[in-house]
């Protein structure tokens, strides 16, 4: 049956029209595929010509699209024609059906659970969208396009990959045979304009006194761990803390996939490399941390410690590289220390636990812990000083705490905020020696609301 006749039947059948709903029109999809391949054949290398501006490339694609559509005999309505042009443009110039979601500033995460299931996160809430891919091959083509842009690969030999978009948005993809019903694609978007400390204060992530305290700690070259669960805003907070580093200092950043957006002039960004198809050439975070110490850094900023690199990070903090910052997945400041202890043991050295804890107590100055609350907001819930060792235990002291006892409003949003506990950290004297003075108002305690079950 001809494409013309099939399209006419699909458009003309009232039953089909009534039951179509949001399902894709298979004939339009077939026509879109045909025109897509025609454009690839016609434009060829022009699509990857870096000398062409985005506007020029878009104009060339639209001209070819109009020309290809004019040669088709299919009786397309104005709406179908506009949709076809949009779909093919998104496939060739962008990221297919999810392109508009990536351009939507309110969307913070795009989650593709298969060709027909695309979800987004807005304001901390997950919702299903009407977007869909034609089939698994269509979705796989978009995944290949994304990962190839940053020199990564995904295939049956390596069916998982971490990558990033050109704007720094974090990408994870999983394909067959690991992804049942997939492929799966998860994109955590990054703001085009990186958030500043004023934005975090406005969002309620922290308050002005806590912000002033953190700025003093970073300028004063204290070693910091940013901890929290998945999606709590650790990388965003790391970005904001890194913005306090003086512009004259030499900063080396180390990440799995580049996400940090530092605006200082003297920044050297390094990215880990996975093994090639022969299983060779891998460069790990640990390799990069060790190498960074030969690059005369004033600061070492590691996007995330996941394994043995924690030992190298502690060594760096203990050998004159003050002011280093990294992130760790954990559920509380105390858990953060336990996680680091475990990761140091993953380095493969049979170190006594006490020696590891002494290293941590000596290296770390404070922990900033974030949580994602039930209302979808991301808040700093602890700013905790690492004081030292008492026996075999590392002692911690909370300088700021989130007050859960203030309850929630009628919309389920937490009314509490970060409050000073009244504890003045020991390192305040070290900051004062450097000329960084924090007045008593920064540590002025606020009354914590006690709930029926006791304070949190």
Examine the coordinates and then state which fold CATH places here, giving the name of the CATH topology of the largest domain.
Rossmann fold
CATH class of the largest domain: Alpha Beta
Number of strands: 15
Q: What is the helix fraction of residues, given as a range?
A: 25-40%
- CATH level 4 superfamily of the largest domain: P-loop containing nucleotide triphosphate hydrolases
Structure write-up:
This protein has 456 residues and is α/β, with parallel strands linked by helices. It has 15 helices and 15 strands. The strands form two sheets. A nine-stranded mixed β-sheet has the order 9-8-10-11-7-12-13-14-15, with helices on both faces. α3 packs across α4 and α12 crosses α14 (353-363). The radius of gyration is 26 Å and the shape is elongated.
Compact description:
The chain has 456 residues and is an alpha/beta fold. The chain contains 15 helices and 15 strands.
């Amino acid at each position: 049956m001809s494409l013309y006749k099939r399209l006419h039947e699909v458009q003309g059948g009232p039953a089909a029209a009534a039951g179509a709903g949001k399902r894709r029109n298979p004939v339009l999809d077939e026509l879109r595929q045909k025109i897509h391949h025609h454009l690839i054949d016609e434009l060829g290398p022009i699509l990857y010509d870096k000398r062409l501006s985005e506007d020029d490339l878009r104009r060339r694609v639209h001209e070819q699209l109009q020309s290809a559509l004019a040669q088709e005999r299919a009786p397309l309505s104005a709406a179908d024609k506009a949709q076809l042009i949009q779909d093919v443009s998104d496939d060739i110039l962008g990221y297919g059906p999810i392109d508009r979601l990536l351009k939507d500033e309110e969307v913070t995460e795009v989650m593709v659970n298969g060709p027909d299931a695309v979800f987004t996160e807005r304001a901390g809430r997950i919702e299903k969208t009407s977007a869909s891919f034609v089939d698994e091959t269509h979705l796989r083509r978009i995944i290949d396009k994304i990962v190839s842009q940053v020199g990564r690969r995904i295939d049956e030999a390596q069916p998982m990959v971490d990558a990033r978009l050109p704007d720094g948005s974090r990408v994870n993809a999983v394909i067959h045979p690991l992804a049942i019903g997939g492929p799966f694609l998860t994109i955590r978007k990054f703001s085009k304009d990186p958030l500043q400390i004023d934005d975090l204060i406005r969002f309620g992530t922290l308050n002005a006194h806590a912000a002033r305290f953190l700025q003093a700690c970073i300028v004063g070259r204290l070693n910091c761990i940013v901890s929290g669960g998945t999606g709590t805003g650790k990388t965003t907070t790391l970005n904001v803390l890194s913005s306090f580093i003086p512009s004259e200092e030499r900063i080396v950043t180390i990440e799995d996939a580049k996400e940090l957006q530092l605006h200082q002039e003297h920044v050297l960004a390094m990215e880990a490399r996975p093994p090639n198809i022969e299983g060779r050439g891998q460069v790990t975070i640990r390799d990069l941390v060790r190498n960074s110490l030969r690059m005369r850094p004033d600061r070492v900023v590691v996007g995330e410690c996941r394994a043995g690199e924690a030992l190298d990070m502690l060594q760096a903090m203990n050998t004159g590289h003050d002011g280093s910052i990294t992130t760790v997945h954990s559920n509380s400041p105390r858990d953060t220390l336990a996680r680091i202890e475990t990761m140091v043991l993953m380095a493969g050295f049979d170190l006594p636990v006490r020696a590891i804890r002494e290293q941590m107590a000596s290296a770390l100055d404070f922990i900033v812990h974030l949580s994602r609350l039930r209302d979808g907001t991301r808040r700093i819930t602890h700013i905790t000083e690492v004081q030292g060792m008492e026996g075999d235990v590392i002692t911690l002291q909370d300088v700021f705490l989130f007050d859960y006892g203030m309850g929630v409003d009628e919309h389920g949003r937490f009314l509490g905020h970060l409050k000073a506990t009244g504890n003045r950290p020991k390192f305040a004297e070290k900051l004062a020696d450097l000329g960084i003075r924090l007045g008593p108002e920064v540590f002025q305690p606020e009354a914590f609301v006690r709930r029926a079950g006791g304070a949190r």
